[in-house]
Amino acid sequence: MTAPSRPAPAATVTEPPWVRGLLLAVALLFLLLFLVVPLAAVFYEAFRKGAGVYLAAITDPYALEAIRLTLFAAACAVPLNMLFGVVAAWAIAKFEFRGKSVLVTLIDLPFAVSPVIAGLLFVLLFGAQGWFGPWLKAQDIKVIFAVPGIVLATVFVTVPFVARELIPLMQAQGSEQEEAALVLGAGGWVTFWRITLPNIKWGLLYGVVLCTARALGEFGAVSVVSGHVRGLTNTLPLHVEILYNEYQFAAAFACASLLTLFALVILAIKTLIERRTARQRRPSSGETA
Amino acid sequence: MSIEIQGLHKRFGAFAALDDINLTIPAGQLVALLGPSGCGKTTLLRIIAGLETADRGNIFFDGEETSGRHVRDRQVGFVFQHYALFQHMTVFENIAFGLRVRPRASRPPEPRLRAKVEELLSLIQLESLAGRYPSQLSGGQRQRVALARALAVEPQVLLLDEPFGALDTKVRKELRRWLRRLHDELHVTSVFVTHDQEEALEVADQIVVMNCGRVEQIGTPEQVYDAPATPFVYQFLGHINLFHGRAHSGWVRLGGLRLRAPEYQDARHVPALAYVRPHDIDLLREPEDRDSTLTATVSRVSILGSLVRLELLQTPGGEIAEVEMTRERYAADPLKAGDLVFVKPRQLRVFLQQDAESTSPVHWGGHGDGI
């Protein structure tokens, strides 16, 4: 009896099964140890003392205040960086000017600099002993150890996300479609809304998602400028740290689980967008002949 | 609308893209800007459209200076080399775009707009594809959509940048005939850029031959092909045979050839170049007289459809020359590789090498009866 079988892949182009198995096992083991186990631990610890304690921890007034502040900082940072990202990417992709490479490098700066140093920068600038400190004090404006400082720090660390995402995309697209719209009589504003924005919308959304994730989870820079005033300048990540330091492990993990949930939701959105853009790009891949 | 271009200059850094361009395009004509890549033809087209600004010089549309007019107020239609269709819009919306973005006062109401777009769709014979996206179309279809989109705003001038450049040969031939017919129907003053001489010769009313940012010659296809003004035009349009020689006191000597050139009376042993088209050469079995023929051997015979091409090896210089003749003529006297022949150019043109501008044709021997 000769069973009709698929032709086995030629041994010359693929690895033997045991090699493939080994590679897969190593990758999976690594993921299990460093991602799945900690993730599970977060939720396990959060619920260890029961749902009652969990609920109490996340409805605690200070926790709610921290959630509110975290969302507020993100809500400030994300639109600002969206605007800046689009403007910067537009300038870099569509115009030639002196210092262009300097601008591109500067946009990457927040990635290169440690967040703690970023926080210290703001303390140096706006702190009581800082460059603008006396002037701010005279105007009765508090930046450091107050909400404005937290927003500033969050904006700083999330600057690169949108611009980084859009620059290569807009460079690849060139400006022919904008020129076509212009010749057809469209003004600059109309061209932006009807031609440029639809062309970059998925890239923009992707950048915004990454930016949001970072804004919600930022710890280092915010920690330096916050001053840890409960109910006033505590973001959710800082709140987790305080709870942990006070040995309230269940509450700390409950709040951490909230952050984790945010992250998972964002990850899901990101995957959806990636699938969407892959589908959008595929049919037009032979476009630039 | 007529276009007049006066003293146009454009530099990109140290590179002179356009150098003193003067050009008149009469209303209703289809004009080709022909030249090798990098000769400035696309830059000129973009300056006419207003997508680029000249450093110096003027462009007049119907006698009116345009430099103060913004691109969107110039009433030009522009077809981009890679079409630049709006990827996120259907064919219908692409064509309708120019009408939809008009100021409210001059925007046509929806039913009129639909009628207009449908009319254009039938003009480009793509009625059935109105709902498709550009990525779902073939190259030729995209090109036609780009053209319809440009025509939707009823431009006074239609500018096309390498309109058939990205298409395969067969589609390209179909489309350029279609473009010619379309132009005959619409009579919009049109300028198209091409590096393909065949395309320019077939489609255009007038050809502007450009090289290195300058206009080499302006004329009808017959004029630029039959009476090239400069060596460049000779080389760029059609095949040529090049003979090296010297001009001296009103005579030009090219290998064994010696012919009168009264206009070079003052020349003293000046290097000269002579250009002969492959179909302007007679091949004789017997020498006519000592000075009017060159001796050569046939090195190769290729039959190309209706034409026969013979490669000749000249005995003195060892240079290779190409001769083309019809099948009939070849059949009358079928030469074979290795045959000794006497080459008699029916029409050739001599340019002095030091001064390529002083041009004057040397007609010589029999009369060119053409093939």
Short overview:
Chain A has about 290 residues and is an all-alpha fold. Chain A has helices at about 15-45, 50-60, 60-95, 100-110, 115-125, 135-140, 145-160, 160-175, 175-185, 190-215, 220-225, 235-245, 250-280. In chain A, about 75% of the residues lie in helices and about 0% in strands.
Describe this structure in words.
The complex is a heterodimer of chains A (289) and B (371). Chain A is an all-alpha fold and 289 residues long. Chain A is built from 13 helices and no strands. Chain A is globular and about 65 Å long. Chain A starts with 16 loop residues before the first helix and ends in an 8-residue tail after the last helix. The model of chain A is unreliable at 282-289 (pLDDT under 50). By secondary structure, chain B is α+β, with helices and mostly antiparallel strands. Chain B is built from nine helices and 21 strands. In chain B, strand 11 (241-248) and strand 12 form a beta hairpin. The longest helix of chain B is centred in the middle third of the chain and has 18 residues, at 169-186. The A-B interface holds A 176-177, 179-187, 190, 194-195, 198-199, 283-284, 287-289 and B 49-51, 71-73, 76-78, 80, 82, 84-88, 97-98, 101-102, 133-136, 139, 149-150, 152-153, 166.
